[in-house]
Write a structure and sequence with these properties.
Length: about 425
């Protein structure tokens, strides 16, 4: 009989996926003294897109106790966003205007290294991490998820847990197997991207460390400095347009439409060839159920335009862990904590989805909706910056309220929003158990 890669037959929790959502969940549970098995399909470090972080993400990293590790890893500090277009004009959004008492900086990261920091931190906290473990599906008994089946490439294994957390990102291993995955056809876009090395600040017309977002009539382009000499450049266009041509040619054409990004690529070399993500808009209509939780991109993913993917993964992963820990301590609160988690997660994901819908409904322009409709209507610029940096759970943010009034832009149906501070609220709810 083959020896299983895991060391126990039953755990308090099994986490499927070792990205930010899975690592934060496993880390939080392990620090609480719970037995955790994390199953990751790939071997880290591995390439991943989604490199620009929100300022609230840095708050979450501090909350998780890993901010210092990230700071020491040589990632680029991000203090603003440059908005530009085909004419070469630009507008800089400076995080100094985000408001008193708020963090005004964050990071642009190389996800291969960033994600490994989080995964290693989970292992150091006591989580049992198995890489190159492909989860085949959940194990169920009387309608409750009680474990998973997985393969290590040679043998198939079955392992049990009191809770299983789907943090498998767009793969949505558990969400798909349980029939929770729904396709969102309101935004049908495709992203293609490359990495470039040898970048030189002499060719940067903007501020050091800023992400550059360039819009054009057919979509938008990003340029993210992830190391001092490395740039991630991608373009997002409608799926139908991409499928009508060759991806490489469309990429070159659309990146070339943005003069300030094209200028930055002078004398660089491609270090990661063209990759793509397509048909990626989806959601799960339930984020909790008997024996399971769904976090991060496994629960909802729309578009990378406002860079909230890592933040939502970290917050939902940590909130799920706190809810599970409380439920393991006192099973009588399990249903209440599960419902509260789902309301919290849906509120954040839905608000972010609405922000993205506003962008696409206004010709790929941040200006038209965020500035003309909101700031000119009396909303302070700080409220816009706060929302764009993760203030998705604030009932008093005027832009958030405006977005939630647009019924046609919602993604989840029939849920009651839960408003709280995205970072501090985790501990407040946990202490109230």
């Amino acid at each position: 009989m083959a020896t299983a890669p895991h060391t126990k037959s039953e755990y308090d929790a099994i986490v499927v996926g070792g990205g930010p959502g899975g690592s934060s969940c496993a880390l939080t549970l392990a620090r609480a003294g719970r037995s955790v098995l994390l199953l990751e399909r790939d071997a880290f470090p591995r390439f991943h897109v989604g490199e620009s972080l929100l300022t609230y993400t840095a708050d979450m990293l501090e909350r998780l106790g890993v901010l210092e590790k990230v700071q020491k890893s040589g990632f680029v500090v991000k203090r603003g966003v440059e908005l530009t277009g085909t004419e070469g004009l630009s507008y800089r959004v400076d995080f100094q205007s985000i408001g008193e008492g708020r963090r005004n900086w964050t990071f642009q990261v190389e996800r291969a290294d960033f994600d490994k920091i989080l995964l290693d931190s989970a292992a150091e906290a006591g989580a049992e991490v198995v890489q190159r473990a492909r989860v085949l599906g959940p194990v169920q008994e009387a309608g409750q998820v009680t474990g998973v089946r997985y393969t290590d490439g040679t043998n198939e294994h079955t392992v049990s847990a009191r809770y299983v957390i789907d943090a498998s990102g767009r793969a949505g291993v558990l969400a798909r197997a349980l029939g929770l995955r729904k396709t969102d056809n309101s935004i049908r876009m495709m992203a293609v991207f490359k990495h470039f090395t040898g970048t030189n600040e002499l060719y940067n017309a903007g501020a050091h460390g800023d992400i550059v977002l360039g819009n054009h009539p057919d979509g938008w382009v990003w340029a993210i400095p992830i190391r001092e000499d490395k740039l991630s450049v991608g373009t997002v266009v409608p799926v139908d347009l991409m499928r009508a041509g060759r991806a490489e040619e469309i990429y070159e054409e659309f990146v070339g439409r943005i003069p300030r990004i094209k200028q930055r690529l002078q004398h660089t070399k491609v270090s990661a060839e063209l990759s793509g993500e397509t048909d990626y808009s989806h959601y799960a209509d339930n984020l909790v159920g008997p024996g399971y939780y769904v976090v991060g991109d496994a629960g909802c993913f729309t578009d990378p335009i406002f860079s909230a993917g890592v933040f939502l993964a970290l917050t939902t992963g940590t909130w799920a862990a706190e809810a599970i820990n409380s439920s393991l301590t006192d099973p009588s609160v399990a249903d209440d904590r599960a419902r509260l988690y789902e309301r919290f997660a849906m509120t954040g994901m839905d608000t972010y989805h609405r922000l993205i819908r506003a962008f696409y409904a206004n010709n790929y322009s941040v200006y038209e909706y965020l500035w003309e409709e909101c700031v000119s209507g009396g909303a302070p610029i700080s409220s816009v910056l706060q929302l764009m940096n993760g203030d998705f759970w604030n009932p008093d943010n005027p832009l958030g309220r405006r977005l939630r009034e647009a019924k046609e832009w919602g993604v989840f149906e029939n849920y009651e929003p839960y408003f709280t501070h995205p970072v501090q609220g985790i501990r407040e709810v946990a202490l109230a158990r």
